[in-house]
Amino acid sequence: MTATHANVTGLAARIEYVGHKLFTDSYFSSSASFDDLLTKAVNCCGTVRPNRNRMPKNFEHQVNMKRGDLKIKVNIT
User: Fold this and answer.
1) Most-buried pick from 3, 20, 33, 53 (CB within 10 A)?
2) CB 36 within 8 Å of CB 54
3) Closest Cα to residue 73, out of 60, 52, 54, 59?
4) Are 15 and 39 in contact (CB under 8 A)?
5) ∠8-12-18 over CA atoms, to 5°?
6) pTM for the complete prediction?
7) Signed CA dihedral, 27, 3, 60, 44: sign only
8) How confident is the model over 56-65, as pLDDT tens digits?
């Protein structure tokens, strides 16, 4: 667990199992922290950099994207 992952899960401890949504910027967003918080019923949304550790291989950077384009990954359990 990285230091930012520990900070996010520590700060989100108050909203575990309540069903709140957590919005983060690219510094605090990671696939690992989002997966961890999803198991605790905290829905997350945030900008994620494609070169982050544990990012899915099908979520690679696309050269043909233009400003304002979105690429969305949804994890439904």
Assistant:
1) 33
2) no
3) 59
4) no
5) 150
6) 0.71
7) negative
8) 777 666 667 7
